[in-house]
Write the structure tokens for this entry.
Amino acid sequence: MKVLVTGASGQLGSDVVLELESRGMEIIAPSHEEFDITNQGLVLQMFEYTEIDAVVHCAAYTAVDLAQEEHIKCHNLNASATRSLAKQCGRLEIPMVYISTDYVFGGAGEEPYEVNDKKSPLNEYGLSKLAGEEAMKAFCNKHFIIRVSWLFGKNGKNFPKTILRLAETRDEISVVADQIGSPTYTKDLAKLIADMLKTKNYGIYHATNEGFVSFFDYAKEIVRQSGKNLIINPTTTDKYKSAARRPLNSRLSKQSLVEAGFELLPPWEDALSRFLKELKI
Ligand SMILES: NC(=O)c1ccc[n+]([C@@H]2O[C@H](COP(=O)([O-])OP(=O)(O)OC[C@H]3O[C@@H](n4cnc5c(N)ncnc54)[C@H](OP(=O)(O)O)[C@@H]3O)[C@@H](O)[C@H]2O)c1
């Protein structure tokens, strides 16, 4: 199987490439420079001149706060470029994996969101990712839409790395205690994506490591597991100024994953411990 991976230098894409290669798949993983997916001509050429059996689309505009300002750039990448890829996959009737986000939901209440619950993104990034989902559903029948949250992996900026960095320079920090969700380790997610590609169980899924936690308790666990000295104080989202609004409830139900027979990802504390080992901490 020959798989095109977009965003292969990114946090998730780099682990997807390693995982698919370890399973003997042939990978096409052009860099952003080589293959700008917002260039429709290049997208057409890619599918015309390369035989591709599946696409794992990890490239995205992921700067959530900056997206409030750069919303055109964000929509061009997350919505329009996704549409170009989805059209080609639909035309060739090949499967395409699209990574979406908990930010398509509005974050009210405390119940975990089911895949078909009402969408009401609070920010431009969420709106653009939802438009990407709509394009997938409209143009590519063989779609895997996977909503994930709070990604962390070796090759990217993420919350655990930020806490570890702050632990080197600060004695005390405040972290929001009223945003609840689940971290997702890119290595675990990459395994699930590889498993999905072996099936025809197309559809919409939520995939995160198991367990719900606030950013405050997550930060405390990062400090505890890494043995750093950093005091974490709880604060609330309304006291923490940011350009983009974020949902308070990011809990995602894994019901559709279970129903389709896929394995749940391991608990987030276990994923964090493997991540710290990967970082040699
Ligand atoms: N990070 C999170 O917490 C989170 C949460 C929920 C969902 N997600 C979703 O998960 C997926 C993976 O996220 P991530 O954190 O792994 O992303 P990331 O580390 O920011 O990587 C994004 C990738 O996209 C590439 N890229 C950007 N613009 C491009 C363009 N015009 N053409 C081709 N490639 C381009 C980047 O290459 P360059 O660096 O060379 O530009 C990079 O390889 C995304 O769909 C994201 O929306 C992420």
About this structure: The radius of gyration is 18 Å. The pocket of NAP is lined by residues 6-7, 9-13, 32, 35-38, 58-60, 62, 77, 99, 101, 129, 148-151, 156 (CB under 6 Å). Residues 7 and 32 are 7 Å apart (CA to CA).
